[in-house]
Structure formats: C-alpha cells, structure tokens
Amino acid sequence: MKRMLQNHPGDTVGVVLEEVQRGDRIAAQSRTVLVRETIPFGHKIALQNIKKGDAVIRFCMQIGIATQDIAAGAQVHVENLQSALDATKPYRYAPASQQVHMTKPMIVPPLFCGFPRQDGGVGIRNEIWILPTVGCVNGVARKLEKLAQPLIQGSLDGIYAFPHQFGCSQRGEDLEMLLHTIAGLAQNPNAGGVLLLGLGCENSTVEKIRERIPVQYHSKIVSLKCRDCRDELADGVALLQKMAAEVGGKTRTLAPISALRIGLNCGASDSFSGLLANPVLSEVSDGFANCGAGVILTELSELMGSEYQLLQRCCEKQVFQKAAKMFRKQRQYFARHKETCYTPLSEKAYREGITTPEEKSMCFAQKGGTSCITGVLEAGEQAQSGLQLLNAPGNDLVSTTLLAACGAQLVLFSTGRGTPFGGPVPTFKLASNHMLATEKENWIDWDCGTLLTQGTVRQMSDQLLQTLMLEINGNQKSKNEWNEMREIAIFKNGITH
Asked: pLDDT at residue 101 above 60?
C-alpha cells in the first residue's frame, strides 16, 4: 500500500509520500483510494469527489476553490485549483461554521520541574541576563558577561549578555517597540536575575523600561547607568556577584504544566516542512494548549493567506476583533511599501506541490495545531494559557526575540535547510528531512525526516514530547545552548535620525 499524509480527518485532499501510479491504492484514514493518474511525491490527491466551485480542504482549512470537477484519486494542483484570496475582503466573525475541535489529544504530563519566581512564573533555566538599553554599551555588556563567568555557582546555568544596535536616534513606534521588547525580556521566567545596563543619555532609558515592567518583577531586576559610575565594570561585577549568589541558590521544584509558554517558529523551510515537521508540531501544540500551557504562534507575514481560517478559531468575538485589527494593519504595512501581503509562489513551490498562497501559508500555520485562539499579543505582552497569536514578522531572529519577550521559556523551530542561530531561550530545532539532520547534527535537535520510512505523526509526536520534557526539566540542553549561540534582534519600522 502506498503512503500518504492526511493532515486532518476532515481534509478532502491528502499528500502522497512517494510517487504513485494509475491503479495504485493509497490509504486515507479508514478507507483506501484508487489512484487515477501519476502523482509525484509531495503533491496532492483528492480523497473524495470534489465539485467545481467547492472549497478544497487541507489542514482542515480552505486552500482554494476547485476550477473543475475533481474525481477521488485524481491529482489536485494548478490545473484544477485556484486561490480564493482577496486583499480587500473584510474579516467577519463566523466561528460556528468553521470552528475546529481537536481529536484524541496527546497526553501531556501535568507537572514539570522548574525554577519558581516571585512574580509567579516558572523558568526551565536559571540564568542571569544582561540587557543593554542602548547599543552604545554593547561592549560593556560583553565585557561584563566575560568577567562574570567565574561567578556561576550552584544551580545558576549561566550569565549572558544580549547586545543590540538600537536605543538611540529612534522615535515613535520604533522606540516603543524597543522599550516593550526589553521590558518583556526582563520578565522572562528563565532569567532569575536581570541587569538593565544603560548609558545615561539614550532615548530608551532605564526608567522608561522599568515603567513598562509590572512591579511584581522588579525584585529580580537591578540597573546600572555607565555614566553614573567611575568604573562601570567594577560596579557591574559587584551587582552580578550578589545576584549570582542569590540565583545560584534556587532549586527546581514541581510546577503545573500550565506555567509553560511554548513559542513556535520556522525558517529555511523546504517541501518536507509542511509534510513532516509542522504536522508533528501541530500535534505537540494541541497537546500543550489542551492541558493549559501557553502556545504562541507568530510570523505574521507567513500567516497572511491563512488568516481567514485562523480568525474563525478565535474563542470569542473580542479576541477576533483584536486579531482582525492586527491582520488589517499587516495588509496596510505591505501596501505602504507597494508589496502584496499574499506572497506569490515560486516555481520551486509549484514543483514541490504547493498550489496557492493560502496553502503555503497554512503549511506554516499548522504549527499552531487546531486549538481555539485565546488571545492576541503585542511586543512584550505576557502570554497566558491556550493558543495565542503574536504580532511579529517572519524574520527568525526578530520573531524568536519577541516570543521570548512574551514569556516563552522554549521555542520549537522547524527547518528544512538548517540554521545555527538561537534566541535568548532554548531554541529546539526540528529538521524536516533526514539529510539535514545527519549533515548538521550539531545544529539539529530532532529528525522529523524518519516519518518517510517509519512511524506516524502521532507516534513521532509522542516521542518528541518525551524529549521535550527532558529539555523542559533541565535534563538536556538544546544544540543552540551547547553551541553558545544566543542573540536578540529588534524589529524596526520607522526612521533613524
């Protein structure tokens, strides 16, 4: 029996995992389908008769409209499927017609071992972060990180500086973005202590950042302005020494799984990302969201095309209104720069079996599973339980930084071509193909490519969950941690003066 992938029981198309020929039979849930023509690997096959004008469903979402009648077992591609996207179409709330419900949720452990914080959060790491308020003190931050390494003791996992180039010559939205991003990072539970390092004359002052941090977090944050010090290095080391002694005395204790916040991201994707890696993440996302943990889906530019379906998954109208406003602003953002918000497909995408922009977008969006959307986040807003949308771009470094600024203790990152980078929190990489996992094992934490030859999405998801619990409980580290690859990047939209 030939193999295929059906992303959701309600889908009207599946994707073949090996080339099939006319007369072959292919498994589709509890039935089999007779193949009517040669269909290449990675391309779609109709699982039932589809009439002209009907919506074609994949990921339990509409990926376009049939342009002619399509018989069960026929290929579904550019000859009989077209996009239904319209950038002028208004967003309307109709949850009853398209609400998605998760089936057979994963069993996620109810507890994990982490570091409880006074503010109520729980870290999966116990670190001290040095956060510059302005790029002018990046050199001081790096020097302090180096000088502070002998201070690491007890349960303290490390002391890390996160330089960036901004904080001066900015106005308006860009300045607010920086302030909220740094304030959000300071609240991340993986940081048991934070040193806000300023210069003294920047736009993004220590005081402005502290104003944006709720008072319950202030006890773990100390500040230093370099211009107020005779020797900023000596003063900085003294502050870090005191902090290291306190943070290093913390111990892991049991905490409810609902205290977890999991960020989702992907980059350098390939045709296997939507077939193998992201379906696995979909199962894991639903499992965590179902048990009360927070799951954060972002990369807004990549979600454009699937936003109509995502909006109907909002748990209530207030959430829908906030999400719709976010997507409308994204349309306007692209229009101001004379670009389309729906990314045109490349010839490579067509060859790999992707037919419409909405299908491409849903390959990315499926990382978020099928759960209801419970909230919408802007930079620095702290995530709560359930699946939430974060307003951040597709850029890997910027979006991962903003995931951490919204409280994610761990980022799950699927990739088809690989990338060595890591965010300020553990950035767990899932390879969509076996070749990448083998050739770049120093980058990759998990190989989803084995799905082509063994197991099912659910079986791999269950195995992945066991590994993630080791990561969460501190029994293993992600490759970006071992490689000491951690950085942040700040989103910029406006002028620099």
From this structure: no
Q: Where are the beta strands (DSSP E) in 190-293?
A: 191-198, 221-225, 253-256, 261-267
DSSP, collapsed to helix, strand or coil, labels residue 225 as strand
> What are 55's two structure tokens?
């919506």
Can you spell out the DSSP letters for 446-488? Answer: EE-GGGGTS--HHHHHHHHHHHHHHHHTTSS--HHHHTT----
Strands (E), 95-183: 111-116, 122-123, 127-132, 158-161
C-alpha torsion angle, residues 27, 29, 35, 36 (rounded to 10): 180
The Cα–Cα gap between 12 and 14 comes to 7
Confidence of residue 128 (pLDDT cuts 50, 70, 90): very high
Please state, as a whole number, how many other Cβ atoms lie within 10 Å of the Cβ of residue 136.
17
Taking the whole predicted model, whether its pTM rises above 0.85 is answered as yes
In this predicted structure, the answer to whether residue 320 has a pLDDT above a threshold of 70 is yes
3-state helix/strand/coil string of 28-63: ECCEEEECCCCECCCCEEECCCECCCCEEEECCEEE
Cβ–Cβ < 8 Å for 289, 295 = yes
**82 DSSP 8-state letter:** E
Region 192-196: mean pLDDT is 98
- 212-225 pLDDT, tens digit per residue, is 999 999 999 999 99
The mean pLDDT of 397-423, rounded to a whole number, is 97
User: What pLDDT, on a 0 to 100 scale, did the predictor assign at position 266?
Assistant: 92
A 10 A CB-CB count for 213 gives 21
Provide the angle, in degrees to the nearest 10, between the axes of the packed helices 232-247 and 138-148: 50
Region 475-482: what's the mean pLDDT? 98
Contact 145, 160 (CB under 8 A): yes
Closest CA to 411 of 304, 301, 300, 295: 295
Say which residue the tokens 């974060």 belong to.
Answer: 390
What are the tokens at 199? 């210069």
The dihedral built from the CA positions of residue 323, 329, 330 and 331, taken in this order, carries a sign that is positive
Contact yes or no for 188/282 (Cβ under 8 A)? no
Q: Residue 4: which H helix or E strand, with range?
A: strand 4-5
**pLDDT for the residue numbered 98:** 47
**Per-residue confidence band for 99, with pLDDT thresholds at 50, 70 and 90:** very low
Report yes or no: 6 and 16 within 8 Å, Cβ to Cβ.
Answer: no
Query: Residue 114 forms beta bridges with which residues?
Result: 253
Distance CA 280, CA 285 (A): 9
Mean pLDDT of 192-210: 96
